[in-house]
Here is the input.
Amino acid sequence: MRVAIVGNGNIYNLAHVYAWQSLKDAEIQATCDIIPERAEKACRGAAAKHYYTNMDDLLSNADIDVIDLCVPTYEHARLSIAALKAGKHVICEKPMARSVESAAEMLKAAEKSGKGLYIGHTRRFDQRWKRIKEGIDSGRIGMPLYIRRCERSWLPFPSNSWYWDFAKSGGVLLDIGIHCVDLVNWFFGSKPSEVFACGKMIRDEAQAKGVHDLATVMLRYEDGKTAFIDVSWAFPKTSAPFYSSLDIIGTGGRIEYSDKNANPMVFAGDRIEFPRYSPLLSASLEAFSDEIREFVACVDSGREPAVTAHDAYDALKIISAAEESVKKGEVIRC
Ligand SMILES: NC(=O)c1ccc[n+]([C@@H]2O[C@H](COP(=O)([O-])OP(=O)(O)OC[C@H]3O[C@@H](n4cnc5c(N)ncnc54)[C@H](O)[C@@H]3O)[C@@H](O)[C@H]2O)c1
Here is the structure.
């Protein structure tokens, strides 16, 4: 599997380059970034053959089978569609796209090209959440009825970062909320029918740019299940930039997880020890390797991945309804 990795910023350097290097049968052929120094440095660091500063220039390279997109959210749809049209398989970071309409175009382009489109919902590959999902499915806590998920962070995005531009990033609701919505849908095995959400602007940059850096979301599922999601980029700055917690109440038991505990998980009464995670990532580094390994295996075999582009599309639709709820102050059907 020969890959070109487009976008050589944070997540490329913190996770994707290592994920690809951990695969035996994969080769990083090219790197690409609109900032030439980043593309060149990434090319040297990954011992790739070429570097590019414009993705269009690499699409005619017949030695590339798959494009891995680590570009900002507002570029996901445009670049995915171009790569699919050029006959490449596409792995694209979450969220699938900035808007539901452009995500629908991505699905159409994938179908038309016959190539794979894989969206990086990394949480699905993290051993913590996989273990919980297996426990739920085996009936260990009966029927899950309520999930409370919290993901908070404090990252030093510069004030001119695209993350602070609502039109480009969708704020914390889209950036982090999409992880939580997908996780809850996966644990429940269903999709919500209604959403209510509120947004707040806490950090100076959020107030200056008019983008929410804290959001709370309530979800009602058709079968009477409910979820509460609490996401933030405004978690007080401490030694670790990430904090997450999870509570699941089932008819026959409960699950509790907190990054703060030494034995972070309580599962139907058992305290479970987990290895510590990188303080610079909200998922384990292994989750990124397992994700890329899964997607590569799916390209090889043509089978559906553990998290499909349709799952990513569903999560985006729910976040889009939550965005509307924040704007209108009303419950929105989704
Ligand atoms: N799965 C996860 O847990 C996770 C974690 C962090 C980020 N992400 C996602 O990864 C994506 C990138 O985030 P980041 O923090 O690495 O951003 P970043 O700004 O640090 O890096 C993006 C890079 O893409 C480059 N770029 C922008 N437009 C380009 C284009 N048209 N062609 C080529 N290069 C281009 C930029 O110059 C930059 O170097 C985002 O969509 C984000 O949501 C996912």
Notes: The chain has two domains: 2-120, 124-287+315-333. The mean pLDDT is 94. Residues 309-328 form the longest helix (20 residues). Residues 6-11, 32-35, 38, 55, 70-73, 75, 93-94, 120, 122, 175, 282-283 surround nicotinamide-adenine-dinucleotide (CB under 6 Å).
